[in-house]
Write a structure and sequence with these properties.
The protein is mainly β and 396 residues long. Helices cover 0% and strands 50% of the residues. Strand 33 and strand 34 (375-378) form a beta hairpin. The N and C termini lie far apart (149 Å).
Length: 396
Amino acid sequence: MLMLIRMTPLPLISLLMIYGVSSADWGVSYSHSHICALKDSSVIMSCTYTYPTGHQIKTVFWTKNTVKGVEPPDLSEDPEYSQRLQYLGDKQQNCTIRLSHVTQKDEHTYCFRFTTNKGGIWLGYPGVSLTVKDDPDLQVESPERVTEGDSVRLTCKSSCTLTDRATFIWYRNSQPLTERRDTNNQLLLQSVRREDAGRYSCALHGHTYISPDVHLNVMYAPKSISASISPSGEIVEGDSVTLICSSDSNPPAEINWFKGGTFVGSGRIYSISKISSDHSGEYKCKSRNQHGEKYSDTVTLNVMYPPRNVSVSINGSVEIVEGDSVTLICSSDSNPPALNFSWFKEDESSAVGSGQSFSALQSGRFYCEAHNQHGSQRSDIVTVTEDRENQTKKLI
């Protein structure tokens, strides 16, 4: 005679054995022992079951909150579930169900129960525990850093089970990416650019909850390199000057300065105090990080200074025939070049001539003075003598 087989919700499963049948032949397996779902969504509880060969399934149904010694109710006959519960399984192995429009009232532990034609009864304990939440509790998963040109995939994850119809909305810096609304939970950025860097978050269409921000850090080689000089106006010898290198890069770049092809300093700011004419020239900066390097265009440092090294020379032969004039030339080193020259005869307060050249018609001691807007300097004294015996004038 066959005996009744019944699974009861005890910590240790008890089974009244049928002669020649092992308890290992009976069982219910759930894909998930706990499911978290959003309010008003549909939940699928995937399930399979086994039983001994030779048995045929007589009845199948799902129940909830089983109590020892109490006949479990069939949820399909419960008015609160009958319109929302759909059995997707069969009477062979599949016992999956769909529960629609779930609310917090549906937070229970659900179990599958079946009977066979030979008196076997099995209850799949402990079953599936269902939690229902108002908000999706979203989190964005993203790589901490990417390099410009890479493809990046951001994933919006929820602690609750979402339906296949769930639609995600993505935000960058709190602004919606309207072109990125999709039915999957991933945001793909192909050939990422530095403009793609920022704070990303996601939301579920129809819900007000927005995930916490995740920062996407896009690394790239230096670009937009430029060099500038401060002050930008005229620079005079003795001034203090600052050269500034601007560079757009991530991570921040190492900056080196070059005058011509010679390294002269490092750092975004290169300062020169009490500048001299020797500092004049073309400067450029080089910006470098682990992703590449780039040079700026050159900037010209033009240092102004007053005349110096002023000297007098004679134009032509030193031997001059008596009666002729001697042409003296005034030379100087200055920036800008001296354009004003004055000639003086020793012991005379007034100038005896102007211009870079001066014709000395008589003997005497002369000097010149060169001028630009930054100052003036006089030359050493030169002596024009007349040799009456040889009838010549000479410059001493």
